[in-house]
Design goal:
Number of helices: 1
Strand order of the largest sheet: 6-9-10-13
Shape: globular
Helix content: 10-25%
Order of helices and strands: HEEEEEEEEEEEEE
Structural class: alpha+beta
Largest sheet: 4 strands, antiparallel
Strand content: 15-25%
Distance between the termini: 107 Å
């Protein structure tokens, strides 16, 4: 092949194109790696508090994870051996529980005879809980969720220690209440 021949010129052009293509590919790969966060300059991802897990008589009990980076509500073992939630954080909203570890799934049903809780201001807005009737025939508050997004699952909590409600009025427990002698009905 002669130095100025068309074949030599074509081979040189093809070699230059291959070299340029390789350079473009290397630049693209480097840009992808940098964009994917593989470099050391990127801050670590922000971790959300995950809460903890406790074992209560063979049951695994989970904390309630709250949004916006708030500390989770810790799980605990209630006096009945069931899963519960530590009521300490409820104190800032006026909920003064006698037993700090409130059992989950406390029996009782929503009841029109019982008024909703007094509204309490929170960072998310005003918070209220619907009224419910405990198996003992006293009004309480249904504390299953807050703002329909935070699943608390406490069930029908006695109103007396909650939100300084005083002596709650009487109500008629539903058939699923299970309270009183005979389990609430035939």
């Amino acid at each position: 092949m002669a130095p100025g021949s068309p074949s030599r010129i074509a081979a040189t052009i093809l070699g230059m194109r291959a070299s340029a293509l390789s350079s473009v590919i290397l630049v693209c790969v480097a840009a992808f790696v940098a964009a994917a966060g593989c470099g050391d300059d990127d801050p670590p991802p922000k971790e959300e508090p995950a809460g903890s897990v406790v074992d209560c008589e063979g049951m695994r009990c989970n904390s309630v994870v709250l949004p916006r980076g708030y500390e989770p509500i810790p799980a605990c073992c209630a006096s009945n051996g069931e899963c519960g939630l530590d009521g300490t954080q409820f104190d800032q909203y006026g909920a003064m529980f006698d037993d700090l570890c409130q059992p989950r799934n406390q029996p009782g049903e929503a009841d029109d005879e019982c008024e909703a809780s007094t509204p309490v201001a929170t960072d998310f807005g005003m918070l209220t809980f619907p009224g419910c009737c405990t198996p003992a025939g006293r009004c309480g508050y249904l504390v299953n969720n807050a703002f329909t997004i935070i699943q608390l699952g406490l069930g029908c909590v006695d109103a007396q220690p909650f939100l300084e409600a005083g002596v709650p009025p009487s109500c008629t427990p539903g058939p699923g209440g299970g309270g009183g002698a005979g389990g609430g009905g035939p």
